[in-house]
Amino acid sequence: MLIPCSRAQAVFTAPGVRLEWSAPGFMVWDEHGGTYVLRVEEAAVTAVAPEESESGILLEIPLAPREALIGRLEEFAAQQQLPLAPAPGPDADAGVLAACHLPGQNLFIFVEGPALVAKKSGDCLAIAVTGAFKARRVVCQDTDLVIHLSRPAMARLVAFVLRQARGEP
Q1: Which residues are registered as beta bridge partners of 68?
Q2: Rounded Cα–Cα distance for residues 38 and 18 (Å)
Q3: Among candidates 48, 27, 166, 26, which has minimal Cα distance to 109?
Q4: d(CA 30, CA 38)
Q5: Cα dihedral sign for 144, 9, 6, 160?
Q6: Where are the domains of the chain?
Q7: How much is the mean pLDDT over the chain?
């Protein structure tokens, strides 16, 4: 499922890498063998600015046009049979893995058990991921950013984004 993404960036201070997506696009939301995946591709890779001292990932979902987003979320939840019971949003320990592949540098940057927080930020919903990121040299083909979530965490995220898109508290 393609979910609009108005902003995507990642800062990894240990290897000194910053990823930025230059134009609004889409995140792929999918399921692979019981693990749910948020994925963004085709980022520009630059060096970390001196003032950036913390590693993390930020993804923003525009909440307008509401009807289109609501339709996509409802379709995804139905396809995946995710319950949409009211929930406060993803738990801080809901993430299984957050990772980035950088083929130009043969880097795999990852954090296991990342902290994931979703909150409304203006006319967007911001998904922030933090944790102790590590880097390994691995041959990879595509520059991308992936976040793996458990089924309950994905259900909470979908329900939370849907509530925000509907303008509910």
Answers
A1: none
A2: 19
A3: 48
A4: 7
A5: positive
A6: 2-166
A7: 87
